[in-house]
Design a protein that fits this description.
Blueprint lengths: L3 H8 L1 H20 L2 H28 L6 H33 L5 H30 L19
Helix pairs in contact: 1-3, 2-3, 2-5, 3-4, 4-5
Length: about 160
């Protein structure tokens, strides 16, 4: 049966990829003044923000009930980082959409948006690193399925 742990693992990689490509496109747009890259980065940013919300909700449900011990501390650190990433992504998205809506093309506003976006990417990378530590170092969400060799196979 698919649990929130499985769902979190399935959806979490999409916002990471979307946001990183969006950031790359925005940097290209800033230096080469190509409107295609800027528009694409905004669409990818919005999709990445929506994916971040979904990932956060599934991750929050997956970590439910684990508050004790070393694993609980690591999960709490990952959750705190995810919360920061969520709000940074939401605020950056709305900052971008506001600048786009008022059609503000000033270079310093674009530069501030890119710097804010860089903070988002750093926060997402930290959250992903902590999530990777949960799985690969602490075995969170991993179930060992040891086969039952006590009964002979019927042929």
């Amino acid at each position: 049966m698919i649990s929130s742990t499985h769902l979190h693992a399935m959806v979490v990689h999409f916002p990471i990829a979307l946001l990183m490509v969006a950031f790359l496109f925005e940097v290209i747009s800033f230096f080469y003044k190509k409107e295609f890259f800027h528009k694409s980065s905004i669409y990818l940013l919005v999709l990445g923000m929506l994916g971040t919300v979904v990932s956060y909700l599934f991750g929050n449900a997956a970590g439910e009930g684990i508050e004790e011990g070393a694993l609980g501390k690591v999960i709490e650190l990952h959750e705190q980082s995810a919360t920061i990433s969520l709000w940074l992504t939401i605020s950056t998205t709305f900052t971008y959409l506001t600048a786009e809506f008022v059609r503000n093309k000033r270079s310093w506003i674009k530069l501030v948006n890119i710097l804010l976006f860089a903070v988002v990417i750093s926060s997402i990378a930290r959250t992903g690193y902590l999530g990777g530590q949960l799985v690969y170092k602490h075995g969170a969400g991993v179930q060992l399925a040891i086969p039952d060799f006590s009964s002979p196979d019927e042929k």
